[in-house]
Design a protein that fits this description.
- This protein has 156 residues and is mainly β.
- It is 10% helix and 46% strand.
- It has 1 helix and 10 strands.
- Strands 1, 2, 3, 4, 5, 6, 7, 8, 9 and 10 form a 10-stranded mixed β-sheet that branches.
- The protein starts with a helix and ends in a 14-residue tail after the last strand.
Length: 156
């Protein structure tokens, strides 16, 4: 009886665990269309936008850049009839296979403490860190995002 149960149990366990990544198997995240807005005169903060696609469920947990003292992943949403912006302290969910857009008026990367003004034509190196995938290093162009929100002040 034991000889029959053990293989059967192992088969059930393998089937139940089949959708789980095996050890060493990581999510892969691709980034595209990265752009950071120029910094407005007298300001040391700006927003960056891009699209992310993860091969497995993952989460963008942090961003760093040598051009800023601090970089955060932010969300913008309406609360009490006011547009509010705040850091996503738990990171930005990246559902497997879905294109997640960081865009004006929505989720975005906020660069703060920008040491030198960013002007159109400059480049901004960004390192994106994920919960599961290896970090991704990209270079964003400085310019206006393609889908700029006309009511946006240009600073985020």
């Amino acid at each position: 009886m034991k000889r029959i149960l053990i293989p059967a149990c192992l088969g059930l366990l393998m089937t139940a665990c089949g959708d789980q990544p095996t050890q060493g198997e990581l999510s892969v995240v691709s980034a595209a269309d990265a752009v950071c807005r120029p910094t407005p005169n007298g300001r040391q903060a700006t927003g960056c936008y891009l699209t992310l696609t993860a091969s497995r469920d993952d989460r963008l947990v942090s961003v760093t850049s040598p051009v800023s003292g601090l970089a955060q992943v932010h969300e913008m949403k309406v609360e009490s009839n006011m547009m509010m912006m705040r850091e996503l302290t738990d990171g930005l969910p990246l559902p497997a296979g879905s294109v997640v857009a960081l865009a004006p008026g929505g989720n975005h990367i906020m660069l703060m403490g920008v040491a030198k003004p960013l002007v159109t034509g400059d480049s901004v190196p960004l390192t994106l860190t994920f919960a599961n995938a290896r970090p991704v290093e990209i270079v964003a162009r400085v310019g206006q995002p393609a889908l700029a929100d006309p009511g946006h002040d240009g600073g985020h």
